[in-house]
Amino acid sequence: MNFDFEQAGQSLTVGEIIAYEAGARIRLPPQYRTFLLQQNGCYPAGMIYSDTGFDADVSEIYPLFVVKKSPRTTVVSVTGDLIWFAGDSGGGQFGLAWQGPAFGTVFWVDTPHSDLDAPLPSDCTPVAQAFDVFIESLGPMP
Fold first, then answer.
1. Domain span including residue 104
2. What is the pLDDT of residue 110?
3. Which burial class, exposed, middle or buried, applies to 103 when counting CB atoms under 10 A from its CB (0-12, 13-18, 19+)?
């Protein structure tokens, strides 16, 4: 990754990820699974943003789950077709499509200003066509 960070959750095993997928009845995109095995979420050391042409910061990438939650830790949630895996400083969220034609695409929704409880990809702004493209696009604010 192109920024300094603190890991948010404990290290995960392949077995834990498989068990999560089975329990949640979802299939995580392969690039996201790899990220979870390496990082399991993170807190950037400073303000970071995506250089994909999308103007929003990323304040936290949520861990899949944590054994002991600190008051600051938000964990991944799933609604409809999206895995909510990260948040911005204004309360917006980044989602990753886990099924359908948009599988693996990263989206953003302005959560505090939306009246949708479970936004679909069509309700959100596309940010990157794949998780690894999104992660590699993140860097410190200029």
1. 5-140
2. 86
3. middle
